[in-house]
Amino acid sequence: MKSVSETLLQRRSIRRYEREPITDQQLNLIYEAIRNTPTSYNGQQFSVIDVSDQALKEEIYALTNQKQVKTCNRFLLFCADFHKIRLIAEAKGIEMPDFQHTLDGVIVGTVDAALAMMSALIAAEAQGLGTCCIGYARTAAPEALSRLLNLPQDTYVVCGLAIGVPREMPDLKPKQPIGVTIHSNRYSEEGLTDALLAYDAEITEYNATRSGTKSDNDWAGHIIGYYREAMAYRMLDAVRRRGFDVVS
Questions:
Q1: Going edge to edge, which strands form the sheet with 46-51?
Q2: 157-182, pLDDT tens digit by residue?
Q3: Whole-prediction pTM
Q4: Which residues of the chain have pLDDT under 70?
Q5: pLDDT digits 0-9 by tens, 75-88
Q6: What's the pLDDT at 248?
Q7: pLDDT of residue 132
Q8: Which of 6, 113, 140, 209 is deepest in the core (most CB within 10 A)?
Q9: What is the DSSP string of the chain?
Q10: Do residues 45 and 13 make contact, with C-beta atoms less than 8 angstroms apart?
Q11: Is 168 exposed, middle or buried (0-12, 13-18, 19+ CB in 10 A)?
């Protein structure tokens, strides 16, 4: 088992995996870590779909075009889930408010699912497994993926996590320095632009010199390009069709 510092500080996204399976013991620790995730008010407003069936993984790959979905050993999909609480409310005769129609409800479900994914990621990484978070599971084809997974209303996919025995060990990607990320007591903009420009240059150098596929991508232009692409995703329409008609 890796140390806490090695698990957290040496983590990198793995996109190539060996055919070697994940053991039942490894998987059980991942499940238990997910189950013990801290959630808002202990509401546990999330569920996880563990996809092990290769044919199903390849169908998801066809929707997302993310090759690690079909090559990983397990692909976990983390979903915001208010369906479970609605079921027990009906069983106990409790009137269920439309909390999922509020922005706070959407945020609560999204945060709970994201925390559960981080629990799984840490448990997997600590055991020497490789992981890769896949946001395209949420954005690429939300309706088709929901049908494929048989998701009920009042649930939606937040993110996917590929897990497997790593076949690669890419260079550790530079992250923003602590001074850019952590503010003391109040948000401070002093020196922030200069620090961001320096980080942008560091990423540009990394992309040009890293092992494996190289590129001339900077940080700011690359991320803003993603934002432009994401403007077409219409995610509010997608979550509304899943039963989250956000009105406030």
A1: 46-51, 74-81, 155-164, 130-134
A2: 999 999 999 999 999 999 999 999 99
A3: 0.95
A4: none
A5: 999 999 999 999 99
A6: 74
A7: 98
A8: 113
A9: ---HHHHHHS--B---B-SPPPPHHHHHHHHHHHHT---GGG---EEEEEE--HHHHHHHHHHH--HHHHHSSEEEEEEEE-HHHHHHHHHHT-----GGGSHHHHHHHHHHHHHHHHHHHHHHHHTT-EEEEETHHHHS-HHHHHHHHTPPTTEEEEEEEEEE-BS--PPPPP---HHHH--SSS---TTHHHHHHHHHHHHHHHHHHSSSS-----SHHHHHHHHHHHTTS-HHHHHHHTT-----
A10: no
A11: middle
Residue whose pair of structure tokens reads 């990983």 in the numeric block: 72
Tokens of 232: 């077409």
